Amino acid sequence: MIMIKLEEALEIISKSSVELLGVERLLLENSLNGVLAEDVFTDMDFPSFNKSAMDGYAIQKIEIDKKLRVLEFIPAGKKPEKTIVSGTCSKIMTGAMLPHGADMVVMQEDVVVDGDFISVENLNSKSNILKQGEDLKVGSLLLKKGTHIKPVHIGLLASIGITEPLVYKQPVVSVFSTGNELVSPHQKPEPPKIRNSNSVQLVSLSNSMGAKTHNLEQVDDNMDLIFDTVKKALAVSDIVVLTGGASVGDYDFTADVFDRLKAETHFTRLAIQPGKPVLFATVEGKYLFGLSGNPVSSFVQFQLLVKPLLNSLVGKEAGEKIFKLPISIHKKRKKSERMLFFPIRINEKMEAEPIDYHGSAHLNAYQIADGMASFPMGINELKKGDIVDVRPI
Amino acid sequence: MIMIKLEEALEIISKSSVELLGVERLLLENSLNGVLAEDVFTDMDFPSFNKSAMDGYAIQKIEIDKKLRVLEFIPAGKKPEKTIVSGTCSKIMTGAMLPHGADMVVMQEDVVVDGDFISVENLNSKSNILKQGEDLKVGSLLLKKGTHIKPVHIGLLASIGITEPLVYKQPVVSVFSTGNELVSPHQKPEPPKIRNSNSVQLVSLSNSMGAKTHNLEQVDDNMDLIFDTVKKALAVSDIVVLTGGASVGDYDFTADVFDRLKAETHFTRLAIQPGKPVLFATVEGKYLFGLSGNPVSSFVQFQLLVKPLLNSLVGKEAGEKIFKLPISIHKKRKKSERMLFFPIRINEKMEAEPIDYHGSAHLNAYQIADGMASFPMGINELKKGDIVDVRPI
What we know:
The structure is a homodimer. The first copy, chain A, is α/β, with parallel strands linked by helices. The first copy, chain A, has six helices and 29 strands. A seven-stranded mixed sheet of chain A has the order 1-19-21-22-18-14-17, with helices on both faces. A six-stranded mixed sheet of chain A has the order 8-5-7-6-10-9, with no helix packed on it. In chain A, strands 20, 23, 25, 26, 27 and 29 form a six-stranded mixed sheet that branches.
C-alpha cells in the first residue's frame, strides 16, 4: 500500500468516525472533561431579578441630595417588604433584591448615617444595579452541544440546574504490545530483552483524553496469539491499539491479523517521521491501530492519529488547537519527503525552541517538551523566525 | 487591612507553603498528574545493548562489496548465537541484538538474496546501529524530583522499572458557599434566591488540579454555623475554601470566623479586578481562603491564588506558565489602581482576543475563553499589538 499524507489519514479517520458511541447522563461532579451531547438553555433570566451590585442603600435617584429615612434592611436572599417612596431608602446588601420604587444603590462608603437617617455624600454615584436578564434572558442558549466540559462549564450547568448533564459516552481503548523481546516493567530485562513501556504509556495517553482503558500488556510475536488477543479485545472495546509488527519484516503480523479479522485497512504507511509504518483499520464499527514498537514513534502516532479519533468519537472537534509560533533557531534536514516532528519548548519569547533530540529512540527528549513542531513536506530548511505548527502534547 | 498587590499575595502564599504534605507511593497507572518526590535514575544503559535500527543484515563493513553467507536469523529478543566472520552475515530484525563481529546493518531493501547468500546493492548504506548507552548511560538522572507526571513520563518510568513512583501527597480541599440566598443546584430558586454554583465549580477546579475534594455545599449567613463548618472541615482537609462573606458588610463573617479560629490572616484585600475582597489565612499548618460569592470573582481568585498554593503544596513550580501575546484590539479602562483580568481567546494569529464581557456577574464570558489576560496596575490603555500576560485557564 502506498504512503499517504497526514492530512489524508486524518480525513479517513474523520470520515470513519461520524457515528458516535451514544450518550449517557453523568452526575455533574463526574462530568468534568466530558463532552455535552445536547444544547443547554437557561431556565431563568440572569440575573433572575433586579439586584444590588454593592453593599449600600437603595434610593430614588432624584432624591440623592435629600436626607432619607431607612425603612428596612435587605440582605441577599430576603424579599424586600417596603416600597421606596419619597424621603425613604432601605439598607441593601450585594446580591440582594432591589425594593420597589428604588432605581439606584449608593455605596455605603458614600453615605453618612445618622440614626435612622442617611445622607449621600457622593452625588456622582453610579446606579449599582444589576438588571434582570442583562446577562442572559430565559431560554437563551447557554452551552452548545459539543462543549468540552471544564470547571467553568460545571459552574454554568449548576447555575441553570443541570445536575446530570447528557454527555457522549467515552470510548473504551484496549492496548497491548507485541514482541518476544518485551518483559514487564516490573522485571529487570537481560539483554537482548527490554521493558515494555509502550502499553502503559498508551494507556495513560488514552486516560488523559478521558477514555476508559484495558492494559493487556504484552503478547509474543505469534500470529495466532495476536489474532486471539485482538479478537477478545474487540469484544470489550471500541478501539484496539497494538504496537510493534507494523512494518513489513518477517515478524510483522499486524497487517495479516487485520486481514484475518476481515477488517478494512485504510492505510499502512504515512509520510511522517518518526512513525511511517502505522496501520489504521475498521471492523464492524470498531477501530484498530497498529502503531510502531518504538515508544517515541508510537507517542507521535498517538498524538497525530489516535487523539483525533478519540476527540471525534465524543463529538469534539477532531483536531487539537495548532499554535503558529516562530522557531528560535535555524534548522535543517537532508530529506524532505515526510513531515518531520520534533520536540520543542515554548520559551519566554513565545518561540518554539527545539529540544536536543537524537531521533526516534530518544523518548527522553519529549519529557520536557511543551509540544511537537513540524517540518512540512518538501521543506529542508527552517530559518530562525519562520512560523512553525506546534501541537501541544 | 490594606489592599496589597497580587505579587505580594503570591509571595505570602509561597512562603507559607514551603512545607509539603508528605509523600506516598502510587501504582504507576494511577500516578498520572502526580508530582515526582524523588530524582529517578536509569538502572541500565539506553539502549542496553548494541541493536539494529532496521530490518536487514548484520555484516562487517569492510566486506560490504562481497557475497556473504547468512549464518542465522536474529529476531528482537533472541541472543545471536554466531559471530560474524569474513564472508558471513546474519539476518537481523529492528531492535534485535547485534551479533559479535558485525559493525553495520544493511537494510533488506538494499540487498539481493540468493539462497543462503546475499549481496549488497547500495554501498553507501548507513551503519544502522544503535550503540549501547548512546541515549543514556546507567545511573543517569532520568527524571527530576518535581516532575509533573504526564503520559510520556509514565512511559519513561516503566522503561526503568519504576512501577510505584514516589509522589507528593495531593492536598484535600473542602469547599462551601455561604449565603441565605443560595439553594442547591437541584432546586429551582424563587427570586431573590439563586442557585449555588460556586461550590461545585471550585470543587471541579480543585479536582482538575489533582486535589481530593469535599463539597460541603451551602451554609447560611450565621457566624456560629460558618465557624463550626470551617472547624469540622479543617479536621479532614489541608485547605478550606469558602465563598461569600469576604467583604466588610453586616453579613460578612469570614474575617471574624478566621479570627475566632485563631488563624493568622495574611491579607483581606487584593489590588485585582474582579475579586478585590479575598482572605487568606493559615492555622496549624492548614490553609483558609475566603473567596468572593460572585462566581466570576471566585473563579479568577482561584486561578490567581488557590492554584499556585495547590501547585506549591505538591512541589510543583507555584506559578503557571504565563504567555506573552499581542492583544488583538485597542482596549481602554477608566481606573487603573487594580490589575484587571478579562477573558480572551487565542486566535489564529496567536493574538489575545478579548471576549465580550459584561463584568463580574458574567461567568458565561469565560466559557469560551482560552485564558485570562491582564491590564497591569497604572495602565489605562492597551494598544493593538501591545504584549499582554495571558494565564491559561
